[in-house]
Amino acid sequence: MNMKTYSREEIESVLVKSELIEAVEEGFRQYSAGDVVVPPVGHLGFDNPPGDVHIKYGAVKGADTFTIKVSNGFYDNPQLGLSSSQGVILVFSQKTGVLDALLFDQGLITDMRTAAAGAVAAKYLAPEHVTAVGVVGTGIQARLQIEFLSEVRAFTKIYVYGRHLEAVNEYISDMSAKGYEVESVEKISDLAKAANLIVTTTPAREAFLMAEDIQPGTHITAMGSDGPDKQEIQPELICNADVRVVDSRNQCFLYSDTSYALKAGLIEESSVVELGEIVSNASLGRTGDQQITFADLTGVAVQDIVSAELILAKLGSDSSLSN
Amino acid sequence: MNMKTYSREEIESVLVKSELIEAVEEGFRQYSAGDVVVPPVGHLGFDNPPGDVHIKYGAVKGADTFTIKVSNGFYDNPQLGLSSSQGVILVFSQKTGVLDALLFDQGLITDMRTAAAGAVAAKYLAPEHVTAVGVVGTGIQARLQIEFLSEVRAFTKIYVYGRHLEAVNEYISDMSAKGYEVESVEKISDLAKAANLIVTTTPAREAFLMAEDIQPGTHITAMGSDGPDKQEIQPELICNADVRVVDSRNQCFLYSDTSYALKAGLIEESSVVELGEIVSNASLGRTGDQQITFADLTGVAVQDIVSAELILAKLGSDSSLSN
Fold first, then answer.
1. Strand (E) or helix (H) holding B59
2. Residue from the list A39, A70, A96 with its beta carbon closest to the beta carbon of B86
3. Is residue B81 within 8 angstroms of chain A, CB to CB?
4. Which of A39, A44, A59 sits opposite B58 (nearest CB)?
């Protein structure tokens, strides 16, 4: 058996943000071109203790591998001294079905490919000159999104909004240490008025980013609305946007901020563009300085597939790793 | 990481037929009692080279583990000197989501749990006195079914039907070596008339076992109709049966020999019993010597779940294995 097993540390050691953004960008292009098979996500839920198992899998047609990601969220694990994020990414040969590798990334690849998607959206949609980035939320994505955005736009100023003072202060401290100039705001509307690139990264279940607060020329990426009942963006904001982008029509028409705007009859399905279509044809993205653009990212298995393939290729060629 | 990896040989070394039958019997009981979560099977298909990936997963509620089985059939593999049956069974803790073990069984557990299901069906449905077993097909299941049936009924006489003389002769030779008295038949109707326990194990796409040939008191188990377009049993035979059993209503009403009888309007859904219901209440099974009984087995993930749990428990307690 030639199966390789890699730890989170090994995976982290070969991850390069710019390469991941490039891979995810190409993955979205292939996805929207119909070159990726992504069956519906599998799910198992447990009550006692509470746990969620998600099985995301798929393949780029004709590629060397296919990928099955098992993401287990067991929320009481920290009480046992274990990470709540468990699971494994399985990479198989698309030529023989043989299991090539197990990536025990403990959620790292999901975090990174999610941030990479935000960077791809910003690359095609954010204004050329970013005056400040507004971040709603203070968790992992609130940090990673910034670091990945820095790969595609130059900025130093960040406005951050969080509900817990301690988390906000920790965020300011951490991100200041990375060279950003970070300021917290009391109201989300203040952030919306001051930044022309806004990223929402919360598990909110009610819209908090309002149409009336958005300035012309702003791009907004919503990351948080990745399941039923989650909502971050006022539907009227999406209606007002000049360009409306989703990572996956299939997913975003079912749930996501975009789905609320559709259900409210404020926008038509035909007015929504997939991110991968913009990668193929940039003229579908931002075409003017004063446009408001909106990207709704729910996470697509192709991001896992291309990320795993990239990481494996790099791990395989890194002879300093002993496996 | 305490994840254990087991090979086919290690798994085989701890497999005891009677224990597996008992585990699968209890699994069916739990399944029909609603104590098992079995989401729809995931599927990925490839064309070049041809390959099928099936993801079967689920959990017995409140058990220690949950199981994800990835079965990869890559049909050109033998040309590369590889088994066409690839994949892995992943066993996770239901308490923490941690991956406990990988079973590289190369299809062994699927083969065994499929044969065990046949034995469970025969335990409750076959006549007490089996005069002879009739087997249609000469492959792995045509062999394993016999060996597992021997755990629940006493018999030595086997009639076999196969389309290829060479395979039939090999079957006769192999099974004779195991102490059975094996005779081939020219026509399936001959086998049906001579045996009162019949097992069909073929990938046929047209019914070959006819109502008119079945003798009173016979039990028939159909194993082959495990997907759309497959068929082994004449719908009229199922209509004539006094007891009609399926492993899973969900699956068998969708595809299976039973589904053809339903679509033809020959039987009502309400006349079909689940095998697990019979395990709970044997009076739902055979109640008379002269009854014709029919069991339609399509394979349910609970069989994999309980088999993997049994095997892991035995491997874990076997100190002669070094992992």
1. strand B50-60
2. A96
3. no
4. A44
Phi and psi of A284, rounded to 5°? Answer: -80, -10
ipTM metric: 0.86
CB atoms under 10 Å from CB of B131, counted, come to 14
The SS3 of residue A290 is coil
Q: pTM score, two decimals?
A: 0.88
Residues B231, B201: Cα–Cα separation, whole Å: 11
Which tens digits make up the pLDDT trace of B229-243? Answer: 889 999 999 999 999
Q: What share of chain A is helix, strand, coil (3-state, %, to 5)?
A: 40, 25, 35
Handedness of CA B180, B183, B187, B193 (dihedral sign): negative
> Does residue B323 surpass a pLDDT of 60?
no
Strand partners, B159: B134, B183
Structure tokens at B240: 């004539």
CB A53 within 8 A of CB A45: yes
Chain A hits for B43, Cβ within 8 Å: 39
From the candidates A80, A96, A104, which should be mutated to test the interface with B, based on the most B CB atoms within 10 A? Answer: A96
Name which of A300, A299, A296 is nearest A241 in CA terms: A296
Answer yes or no: are the C-beta atoms of B242 and B291 closer than 8 Å.
yes
Q: Which token pair is A207?
A: 């819209």
Distances (CA, A) of A90 to A55, A56, A97, B70, B266: 11, 11, 11, 10, 45
- B200-227 mean pLDDT: 93
Query: Cα A43 vs. chain centroid, distance in angstroms?
Result: 20
Q: What is the pLDDT of residue A321?
A: 45
> In this structure, are residues A222 and A241 in contact, taking their beta carbons and an 8 Å threshold?
no
pLDDT(A264) > 90: yes
In this prediction, residue B318 carries a pLDDT of: 56
B300 vs B251: CA distance, rounded Å? 8
Q: What is the pLDDT of residue B1?
A: 56
A165-177 vs A140-149: helix axis angle to the nearest 10? 30
